[in-house]
Design goal:
By secondary structure, the chain is an alpha/beta fold. It has nine helices and five strands, in the order βαβαβααααααβαβ. β1, α1 and β2 form a beta-alpha-beta unit.
């Protein structure tokens, strides 16, 4: 959907949670000064949606400048996504901290998620040629759309997008995320610090 912009922190949490529940999925771009508390806001939204146990699965992912590149970032993205989805479906937050391996998470997945999760785990362990890296990254980053096609409504909150600028080839991650989600039927928040 069209991306909305959010200025101050007032009502920010409510606005993020509304975005998660909107009948028509929409995107929200949060650009804030460094240290403005955006991360805390997203984590509070995650907590609220997790506790609500509604029809929306909250997923929080933070970009790291220390990722070796798009492939590592995308693999961490799907691991976080699956870990948080399984924790949500089971109502067990401890799984997030324990951080099981991908194959363990696939085994723990709810039956209704089995189809897309099994394919994700398979893709995760696939060795790709460096030449295929961009398509591999795109395939992993578009997992929420494949999950949605199977009835799993994921609300994606991506934090620290400004760190793609310090990650080797980080622009690939940023470009692919924008390309995949802007204009899609996914609800998401993209957050980063203003330069």
């Amino acid at each position: 959907g069209a991306a909305g912009h959010l200025g101050g922190r007032e009502g920010g949490l409510a606005r993020i949670v509304e975005c998660a529940h909107a009948a028509k999925p929409t995107g929200l771009n949060l650009l804030a000064k460094p240290g403005a508390g955006t991360t805390e806001l997203l984590k509070q939204a995650f907590d609220r949606l997790f506790v609500e146990r509604g029809g929306v699965i909250p997923v929080y992912y933070a970009v790291r400048g220390s990722d070796a590149g798009p492939r590592e970032a995308a693999r961490r993205f799907v691991h976080d996504l699956l870990k948080q989805t399984v924790a949500f479906r089971r109502g067990d937050r401890s799984l997030i901290d324990v951080s099981p391996e991908m194959h363990e998470l696939a085994e723990l997945a709810a039956p209704e998620d089995a189809y897309w999760v099994d394919r994700l785990a398979e893709a995760y362990y696939t060795e790709t040629d460096a030449a295929d890296d961009r398509s591999y990254v795109r395939m992993l980053l578009s997992t929420p759309l494949r999950a949605a096609a199977r009835g799993a409504r994921i609300f994606l909150m991506i934090d620290d997008l400004h760190l793609t600028s310090v990650m080797p080839q980080g622009s690939i991650v940023l470009d692919e995320l924008r390309d995949i989600f802007e204009g899609s039927d996914a609800a998401y928040v993209f957050a980063g610090a203003r330069r």
